[in-house]
Structure prediction request, 371 residues.
Amino acid sequence: MMWLGIDDTDSLDGGCTTLVFHELLDSLPCEYGQPRLTRLWPFAAQRTRGNASLSVEIYTDDEIIPWLDNYWNTKILPLRGQVSDSEHSERKQYPSDPGMVLFQEQPEEDYYWNAVRGEVTFHDGGKQWGGNGRIGAAASCAWREKNSTWEGIAWRLEERRVDNDVLAKVDQMDGTFLCRDPRTKRGLISPRGPCPVMFGIRATSLDVAKNATELLIEGSAPIIGSRVFKTNQASGDHLETTTTVTVHTKETLNGGHVVINGKYLAFSESGKMNLLAQWMNEGDSFECMGLEYENMIHLEAIKIVDSKNRSRPLCDCGTRMKSMGSEQGVRCPKCKTRKSDSWVEENRQPLFSGWVQPPPDKRRHLAKILT
Ligand SMILES: [Zn+2]
Prediction:
């Protein structure tokens, strides 16, 4: 038994890591276990687009090495150095730097946790090919599947076309998630751009992922092939804890991003979450999750813990009392009753209750679906 991983083969001219891995598995001269797709820390310095790394347990021994050597040199190495296509042009793009790793023993679990929550360097040992991609490849091998979901991926032969009615049906199946935007009904399963992926359908069980994949293939343009991966998507593994924060300052930047206490950032694209951040008052408290990057916390979910309005008390007759002036108490404008209390604090009903997250298409692959 050995562990095989690859990462970072994405490029403008193809080389999508999931397809490279699919073809590698199809060619392997040995049996293998469940293929796995892992997402790692999104801010790692030299990640290419997509941030997916792949791994699998293979049922063989060292004798596979010459075969892998040859496969590496003829099929994967030629992908090196191509600059990946990006939908997020504000981030510097690095040329792809593919890596492949082979370990006799599964790398220790800590390596995965460090790689999903921060920057790590190369993992020693085993047999390794290539460059930076070896980091993600080894981290994928180290994943212990503590929290897992499934994704069925199909790769297109030429055009990218998925039937909307089939997608609607799949969206209604128990156990699929993030198929369509619940408000606009726009499909979320197909990427844009030159990537060879026709669709990636996410599910909470293997059976549902398989069924949904088969249904979608029937309603799609011709494909190269398909495969179901076990993944750490929607695991929340990248976030260790939630924090409770009291609002001291709140500012809205140009573009609508909201910054709380100079540290907690709710991007304008984050929809309801951004509205909720705008809605909060000084003195309110909220629970949150987010990734720290360059001394800011990029919020991924918030929940109001406490929010209050200061207002004049209600009179026994039901009318809102009014101030008589500084230190003069309050008086009912209707029945003229007086009271000494000047203010009452009232709980505000949050604009949205429970955990609030960005819209589905603006969430990280790793983001857990909170309810
Ligand atoms: Zn009154």
Q: What stands out?
A: Residues 315, 317, 319, 332, 334-335, 337 surround zinc ion (CB under 6 Å).
